[in-house]
Amino acid sequence: MVGDAEKNLLEGLDPEQRAAVQAPRGPVCVLAGAGTGKTRTITHRIAYLVHTGHVAAGQVLAVTFTNRAAGEMRTRLRALGIPGAQARTFHSAALRQLRYFWPRVVGDAPWELIEGKLRLIGQAAHKAGAPTEIEVLRDLASEIEWAKASLISPDDYPDAVRRRHRTPPIPADQVVKVYQGYEKLKNNAKLLDFDDLLLHTAAVLEEHPQVAEEFHERYRCFVVDEYQDVTPLQQRVLNGWLGQRDDLTVVGDANQTIYSFAGASSRPLLEFTRRFPEATVIRLERDYRSTPQVVGLANQVISAARDRPAGSRLKLIGQRPAGPVPQFHEYDDEPTEAAAVAKRIQDLVDAGTPLSEIAVLYRVNAQSEAYEQALTEAGIPYLVRGGERFFERQEVRQAMSALRAASMDAPEGELPELVRRLLERVGLTAEPPAGGSARERWESLLAIVELAEELTATVEGADLPKFVAELETRAAAQHPPTVEGVTLASLHASKGLEWDAVFLIGLVDGTLPIQFADGDEAAVEEERRLLYVGVTRAREHLWLSWSLSRSPGGRRHRRRCRFLYGLIPEEHPTARLARSSTNGAKGPAQKLSCRICGRSLVGTVATKLGRCTDCPSDVDEELLSKLRDWRMTRAKELKVPAYVVFTDATLMAIAEQRPTDPAGLVSISGIGAAKLNRFGGDVLALVNGTSAE
Ligand code: ATP
Ligand code: MG
Q: Can you give the residue ranges of the HRDC domain (predicted)?
């Protein structure tokens, strides 16, 4: 007999969702695209199993990947009358279990969670004779996290990176030493990092049958949301939880795998039936979240993806009534773009859209500054998710105190150059670091230099004290506490969430796809999936925009995100605008076809080289080797990594294009006024065959 509660539970579901909800206890896999109701299906499944007496609420453990998503699941479960089911992240579940089992397994030895691992990594790096600059330490931290999430021990590390064609931040044998040293220091101090929580939980369940038995008594039914982003380490914990049982429901969308860089893989999702051949597999195609207009664009974005595995080739079918077509907008510079977004948000609010139903999404956290500013100016409240507000970031606070301290001494010099010099002390380098948090910090510092440029351009006699005062005013204005507001979030943090109106901003090559993905097809594909995640967050209003230069009056050398080609309707004014701005005759931004094969160029490396990356190089080998030697010497003198002087791609471009004068040199993208001043003489002397000083 089906009771009222069950009937209500099944009523709001379509036949496929219902099949997943009603599937008998045992392995269930829901493979489906964005907005098809996966999260809804699993919460209903839990409620259904509990209401029909198949499992007690307390025996269910639902896991997902972010605290926000876990909170959302708990809210939905409560609304379905199941407050007793646990919905947690892998980490918080492991932490809880470890606290409980630890005294019995290890005894009373107390342990603490580590507060940021950089200090220990710094000590380990120092001991290993590895570089200890903060940027390198951050990269090492990410690398060690990746290795641990991928279940790669220090000894296996060199082999693993070779097999996966992964570029380590410093030579692999040095990473090994730092990794080993870090583990040792951490163990001696009785500290655990986040990955250890998972490692120890898995080990306890694997090695202590009694503990495992007790745990298996306690939890009987497991549910994993966003399963496409599971890491090998998380999978191992999940295996420990399950033991020999198979009561596991997973849901996911391989097209939304966006954490591969951190070791996640959609394989366990796509190969679920290999592990559980008797599994119930459900595919959902109806998109309940977005209008057909948004769904159409999402389908287009993802159908261009290369090498889509079989289980991910789903086409979404929009279920909602028609809505406005997605808008594409190109601007001259970022402040103009941000102001236009703020204006559009105001219009939406005036027309009745609640602030909490609007989101501005970006690729890197540093992009939020312009929007925090524009929204503040427009008097629109906002909240920053998955990242701190700009002026609360550690590097920004450090930069502010460095500038404040320097302004007491009334230093001389052009404001932007002065600011740049001062910020070098807190980590600003000439070229962006390869990626990760180092890149985020760098972007924040660069944003401050750009504010200095902006102030110089707009205020007569702008000097350091004026600039510091300006920064403080901005910081103060952006601090008022907000209750309800527009969400500012990174694309990564937006996974699983939805809003009526979504603004995808700053869509330029180099930001999306992010520069360090270039030349690595898998990494570029992950960036494409990020765009897909962004597009599919919108219920109704979707806006995509980019700007050709960072600051007002700057060089308009940026190109819109390559994933947008073919998506913008032909009659769209932006399509014409963008075409006409790239068809001009001269200048670096116009070199859009390969000088070897004539095909159009895709990607920043290719643009820099002026040829496709796989076209034969016409490099002057002798010059290249001289340039490399020179770079090494300069880098040593300046005590910076070599790429800060010039990246490999820039050196290659110089050795291929052999510019003989400053104009030729700056026409290579990545060489601006600062680099020309600093290194132009040396480089031109080398190219022209005279010995460089
Ligand atoms: P994502 O891949 O982005 O995590 P999802 O597949 O988990 O998406 P949900 O968040 O569960 O999708 O659902 C998307 C939206 O569609 C939600 O607002 C949900 O309430 C609604 N929805 C899902 N199924 C139905 C249905 N059968 N009828 C009406 N609305 C539905
Ligand atoms: Mg979901």
A: 617-693
Closest CA to 390 of 379, 403, 376, 378: 376
Q: Ligand 1: which of 16, 229, 288 to mutate, most ligand atoms within 8 Å of CB?
A: 288
pTM over cut 0.90: no
323-389+478-577 is a CATH 2.30.30.240 domain: no
Q: Which residues line ligand 1 (CB under 6 A)?
A: 12-14, 17, 32, 34-40, 253, 256, 288-289, 496, 498, 536
Helix (H, G, I), strand (E, B) or coil at 442: helix
Hey, which bits of 72-195 come out as E strands? 86-89, 112-113, 191-192
Cα-Cα-Cα-Cα dihedral sign, residues 456, 458, 460, 466: negative
The domain 621-692: what is its CATH number?
Answer: 1.10.150.80
> Is 38 assigned to a binding site?
yes
CA–centroid distance, residue 252 to ligand 2 (Å): 8
Q: Would you kindly state where each structural domain of the chain is located, as residue ranges?
A: 4-95+202-283, 113-189, 323-389+478-577, 392-477, 621-692
User: Which ligand 1 atom is at minimum distance from the Cα of 13?
Assistant: 27
39 is in an annotated binding site: yes
Dist. CA 134–CA 117, nearest whole Å: 12
For 356-402, what is each residue's pLDDT tens digit?
A: 899 999 999 889 989 988 988 888 888 887 666 778 778 888 898 88
Q: What is the largest CA-CA distance in the chain?
A: 92
Q: Which residue shows structure tokens 């909602």?
A: 320
Distance 498 CA to ligand 1 centre (A): 9
